[in-house]
Specification:
Blueprint (H helix, E strand, L loop, with lengths): L5 E3 L3 E13 L2 E7 L4 E3 L2 E3 L6 H13 L3 E16 L2 E14 L12 E2 L6 E7 L7 E3 L3 H4 L8 E6 L1
Parallel strand pairs: 2-7, 4-10, 6-11
Antiparallel strand pairs: 1-2, 2-3, 2-5, 3-4, 3-9, 6-7, 8-9
Length: 158
């Protein structure tokens, strides 16, 4: 069994994450904790020895129950933050994706259950409503309207 690409020490954690940006009918699919109000782009940690796109396809099949096609790499992010007294440094890769079968995740306004964690829900959010919610990465609120631009690298810290 392969390990996730995440390493921890006494005062630090560092990892590699990949996420899929799925947009349909001016809505984006985001995830949040069942009773939470903070949203994120669905994805997960990469396994050591697995290519980013392959890892993203595995994550979406396991967690969303749908096969995807990766269209292109949109953004990379280095995120530096502190949590529970530990310094964290993550590298994230965000891909524009499409589902192979759109009916697997209909954008009918319903909230969908996460297949891998019942406390996580998937929700379609109107692109114009992104400024009204807390969403990570924060740069998503602006970058989502410039998808035709070349790939960009962001460095964020909290």
């Amino acid at each position: 069994m392969r390990m996730d690409w995440i390493f921890s020490g006494e005062n630090w954690t560092c990892g590699v994450r990949v996420a899929g940006v799925l947009i349909r009918n001016d809505k984006i699919l985001l995830q949040r904790e069942e009773n939470g109000h903070e949203y994120a782009v669905p994805g997960g940690h990469i396994k050591i020895g697995v290519a980013l796109e392959d890892g993203l396809k595995r994550e979406w099949l396991e967690e969303m129950g749908t096969a995807i096609c990766c269209q292109r790499l949109l953004w990379t992010e280095e995120c530096l933050w502190e949590w529970k007294g530990k310094k964290n440094h993550s590298l994230s890769f965000y891909y524009r994706i499409e589902t192979e079968n759109p009916s697997d995740l209909p954008d009918d306004g319903l909230t969908h259950c996460h297949k891998d964690n019942s406390h996580i829900v998937l929700e379609w959010v109107e692109l114009d409503a992104l400024n009204d919610i807390v969403v990570y990465p924060e740069f998503l609120k602006e970058a989502i309207f410039r998808l035709d631009e070349p790939m960009r690298h962001f460095v964020t810290s909290a």
